[in-house]
Amino acid sequence: MISRRLILPAAILLVLSAACAGEKPAAPTAAAGASKVRLGFSAWPGWFPWQVAEEQGLFAKNGIDVELKYFDSYTDSLNALATGNIDANSQTLNDTLASAAGGAKETVVLVNDNSTGNDQIIARDGIKSLADLKGGTVAAEQGTVDHYLLLLALRKAGLTEADVTFQPLPTDAAAAAFVAGRVDAVGVFAPFTTTALKRPGSTTIASSADFPGAIPDHLVVSRDMIGRDAKSVQALVTTWFDTLAWIGQNRQKAMEIMARRAGVSVAEYQTYDKGTTIFTLEQNRAAFADDLPARAEQISDFLLSSKLVDTAPSLEGLLEPRFVQAVQP
């Protein structure tokens, strides 16, 4: 997704003389006896830096043994964390709240980014606004972030989900159905926006840029992991900021790694620039102190009123700022 417009100033240079000579430096190994952490992520530009961290040995540099698991289906990653099949996952705040409403014990420990345009409602030729969508069919992944975006956009336009025919499909299948002409519009996130916009005449009629701060993306860990292995949680958070510093110093190489993981060209990946704002350490600390508590309450109320959840999620233990506070700038 990304040019790092708000990336951390590089504090640590990891370019070794071998790399300057075109050779790949040997990756460091995790400390003997380090516990293995199962970390999930899926197709979103704000989470692809985890691929960089793995390929550049940055987890091991911080003494943590990570089993990085990529999920083709974002929903599967949510379910994996909620059921204890992974220890940590990158996911949105609203999806974390939805899991909490279902009884999952999860905690946000890091803000990866805010979606600032890379979540989109894309419509076929002839539909130029949300009002034009009335009576049409819209596909999105039910109960997840772009379903949420659809409801926000419809509400802003004076409509409800009852004014459209909603077709629940996994995000990749939703994009494919739209391109094939089987639905009138689709709610998708990058890189699936690239797929959807290949339909001739298609256009974006709403995006997360219209709702600043509505879709924050996070590293979320199980409550159990914090209790049994807070040291590894700290290592994950520290590795994230080391990774941003490495990307800032090795942009071209990083772009190649992330574009490859996304399944798009580097040029296509660069188009995701404005749509994702990566949070610096300072922005993380400010978000935990000011914005996130209020944002969590706001999203919780919306999920309940829109019937995306049956009961209000508990916000107790949802946000834990101590790990970003402990990172050395």
UniProtKB/TrEMBL annotation:
<keyword id="KW-0732">Signal</keyword>
<dbReference type="InterPro" id="IPR010067">
    <property type="entry name" value="ABC_SsuA_sub-bd"/>
</dbReference>
<dbReference type="InterPro" id="IPR006311">
    <property type="entry name" value="TAT_signal"/>
</dbReference>
<feature type="signal peptide">
    <location>
        <begin position="1"/>
        <end position="21"/>
    </location>
</feature>
<dbReference type="Pfam" id="PF13379">
    <property type="entry name" value="NMT1_2"/>
</dbReference>
<protein>
    <submittedName>
        <fullName>ABC transporter substrate-binding protein</fullName>
    </submittedName>
</protein>
<comment type="similarity">
    <text>Belongs to the bacterial solute-binding protein SsuA/TauA family.</text>
</comment>
